[in-house]
Amino acid sequence: MSNISTLVPVIAIDGPSASGKGSVAELVAEQLGFHYLDSGAIYRIVAYASQQNQIAWSDAEAIAKLTAQLHIEFSHGNILLNGNDITTEVRSEEMGRGASEVAVHPAVRHALLDLQKQFRQLPGLVGDGRDMASVVFPDAILKIFLTADVEIRAQRRYQQLRNRGLAADYETILQDLQARDLRDSQRSAAPLKQMPDALLLDTSNRTIQQAVDFVLNAYKKTTDTYKKT
Ligand code: DC
């Protein structure tokens, strides 16, 4: 039987690091007036909080326990942990790596499941991550696997960091992305993979706007089909 939350439409956008899925998901949510879940940010917060509490990213049990005590808020594009703004800290490359490391633990993933599901509210949700379609919202009305060649993703990440006035080395970024791709897709718990019912969106030769249009068109087609049935 369907409950109220399963009646709320979800667009699940999964894909590897630096594929542009965050920007696309946020813009799609804005266009549709939907809520937005950046699930990667949650894993980054957990990595940050673990570091602050001197807990190693390999210590699954201690991290899962800590996770239950975290008060996480997203407010006007800012990330708050226990009331403190940690937006800049969690967006660092180090916390991207930490997030990928804490995310391999099934106990940590399990502890974060309810928190992510709570974002499913009317009129709808766009969620981006690695397991939106496979685990968190398997009944999503639309599933997108958004990717791009790793060299192109490394180039984009390099440019992003330079634009922010931060030091960046292309080769280091490339190696880091390759290591993260491998860890995220080879882990046993909720690995990154394209679901059979997900549409593939390769943004290697597409702009963000073209990718947004692709998702909006696909959503329109899906809802039109639903209306006819
Ligand atoms: O999307 P991102 O780069 O902010 O994510 C950082 C890491 O968090 C990513 O390398 C793997 C992990 N992650 C995950 O395992 N599952 C998700 N739904 C989102 C992120």
Structure, described:
This protein is an alpha/beta fold. The protein has one domain (7-214): Rossmann fold (3-Layer(aba) Sandwich), CATH 3.40.50. It is 51% helix and 15% strand. It contains 11 helices and 8 strands. The strands form 2 sheets. The protein has a 5-stranded parallel sheet. A 3-stranded antiparallel sheet has the order 3-4-5. Helix 1 crosses helix 11 and helix 9 crosses helix 10. The protein starts with 9 loop residues before the first strand and ends with a helix. The model has no long low-confidence stretch (mean pLDDT 93). The structure holds 2'-deoxycytidine-5'-monophosphate. 2'-deoxycytidine-5'-monophosphate (DC) is lined by residues 17, 39-40, 43-44, 96, 99-100, 103, 129-131, 180, 184. 2'-deoxycytidine-5'-monophosphate (DC) binds next to helix 2, helix 5 and helix 10.
Structural class: alpha/beta
Shape: globular
Tell me the CATH superfamily. P-loop containing nucleotide triphosphate hydrolases
Unreliable stretches (pLDDT < 50, length at least 5) are none
**What is the N-to-C succession of helices and strands?**
EHEHHEEEHHHHEHEHHEH
The CATH architecture comes to: 3-Layer(aba) Sandwich
Tally of strands: 8
By DSSP (H or I, 4+ residues per run), the number of helices equals 11
What is the name of the CATH topology?
A: Rossmann fold
Q: Could you give the order of strands across the largest sheet?
A: 2-6-1-7-8
What is the total domain count?
1
